[in-house]
Amino acid sequence: xxxxxxPSVLSCNFANVQRDVEMxxxxxxxxxxxxxxxGVFVPNISFGFPVMEAIHKHAKKPLDVHLMIKDxxxxxxxxxxxxxxxxxxxxxxxxxxxxxxxxxxxxGMKAGVALNPHTPVHLLEEVIQELDLVLIMSVNPGFGxxxxxxxAVEKVKKLKQLIIEKNASVIIEVDGGVNLETGRLxxxxxxxxxxxxxxxxxSENPQKTIEALKQL
Length: 216
Ligand code: DX5
Ligand code: ZN
Hints:
Layout: E1 4-7, H1 17-26, E2 32-37, H2 49-58, E3 63-68, H3 76-81, E4 84-90, H4 97-106, E5 110-115, E6 133-137, H5 151-165, E7 171-175, H6 180-189, E8 193-196, H7 198-201, H8 206-214
Parallel strand pairs: 1-8, 2-3, 3-4, 4-5, 5-6, 6-7, 7-8
Bound molecules: D-xylitol-5-phosphate and zinc ion.
């Protein structure tokens, strides 16, 4: 099976979002990665519902939404309404993670949990069977264009092992500093899906770049 590619819209040109959304529609990409930041959980603020709805209006592929917000529970229904198909929350941002996962699924979305670089994979032991996706952060969340943290590769291997041990069915996605070199290491380690922002949007031919990532 080829690698799932989820270009991060955070790196697109917000003065011309529709053009960049159409580029992703026409490309080999599988999903749209949507980064929502609250300025509390992470030291940056990205965009909210009106922008996400505008993207959803033009997007012809699923929205893979990465919430970098503290205590996301009150907003789960709003993200469903704004078009999220996969909703990923941070392990570090949820006091009652199990409840949050159940609420995401009850709202009709796929549930994901993201792990910051310092958070070990084994902390997911008790919830892995409830999850559709785990997002391994290979940078500290908050900004596009950061340098890849190499220990993410080992974490992907550990997560793969945990999924096998628990007989779970979970997509392993990795986010941050992904390019052809780091992407290859991640796929070899067991990653099913790669997020790529600056590498795609800063490249001369974003569609070709997506195609090359897809071949990893
Ligand atoms: C970082 C975000 C990423 C970001 C990735 O907090 O979660 O999705 O857009 O950007 P690159 O691929 O440039 O590291
Ligand atoms: Zn992200």
